[in-house]
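A quick aside before the break. I want you to see a complete sequence-to-structure record at least once, exactly as it would be stored in a machine-readable document. Don't worry about memorizing anything.
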Amino acid sequence: MSEKNKENNKKDITVSKKGEVSNNILEESSFPQSEKQGEKEDVFLEGKSIDEIIEEENNSQQKQNYLAIILLLAGALLGSLFVDVAQLMSKKGYSVKALRKADMFTLEDKTWVAYNEPIVNLTILSVGEDKLAECPTCRPPEEVIDLFKKVMPTLAIKNVDIESEEGKKIAEKNKVKILPAVIFSEDLAKTEFYSGEAKILFSKIKDSNNYKLSLAGLGLPIGKYVELPEINDTNPILGNKEAPVKIILFSDHQCPFCAKFFKEIVSVMKAFGEKAVLVYKDLPLEFHAQAMNAAIAGECAKDQDKFWEMSDRLYNTQKQWGDLDDDKAKTFFKKQAISLKMDIEKFGVCLDESQHKEEIEKSKKEAEEFGISGTPSMFIGDEFIGGVIPVEQLKAVIQSKIDAVEHNQQK
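That is the input. The structure line, written in tokens, reads:
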């Protein structure tokens, strides 16, 4: 082999980190057999054998590994010092030490301001963008959210579609009944905003540390009901419980609007027979002094199957007992029980011990969960009606729900 060929072949020999020889000319068997046997392991690069080169590579790699470990341990030891050094050298990054002393700093085109309040996560549970046109009130107005951002600058906002997997989990965990659902994380309670009068706008969610905004408290409309109020065995029921159309009425015995409406709806129910049922739920309002006692009197009468008769008496005599003190109001209710031929001893104990108060409080809580704050309010099927409506309109709505059920049954 010529000296020139030997020089070219030397340039093509490389040694990998694993100690393997790679040579295109060798792989192609370009050397005559006698020349390859003559060189074997006596090939030299820079005057070193392959074994020496491999050993040197391994030693070099170990040194690099040791250096990396030393740097890692030193970084853990010195903590934020490296961040300060990096900031000094590159003019980028912020150390924890520096941030603790800063009330404000600028990064690129943004200014960051320090607050003494925690980050509060706000989840807005609504419908997806594709369904927002069908239900525009299913999302709270931007003006309301902007207002919250101003009074709580550390608010982190996230919109979630209730039909997504995440949305379903959030709805179940936070017992969502209506849309939009505006849910604040537990850190809301640590803010200055919540510690003031704004606390009345929120209610803590049972079995959760989160807080729910009261839409009714802000006068915001309800976009959609995710579910309907439950009908249980403790609710007074007028008609067939299995009727296809169910009317759920939230009412207050001391509410003057309820007095007129109660008489009308009881009369209307008779016209629909077995096709509709009326379910009564107590919602005694706080500003009616005797509303709770009257609700208890109605429930005590229910124990003796006289709820509807007692309620009719209470609504018709509101002006006689509404302004009385507790003792006199209870005496009045007991007189009504006597005139209705009830067991007065049993009724009296029930009323004096407020035996159904806890049950009534649950009904009030349920109304709150559905965004109901006034009476009368009712669901006719899946349609919500707040306030008194004319008798003919009431009949028309009930009939339309019955027609819809019968039409679906014929399919």
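Two observations worth writing down. Residues 120-225 form a domain with the Glutaredoxin fold (CATH 3.40.30). The chain has three domains: 3-43, 120-225, 237-410. We'll return to this after the break.
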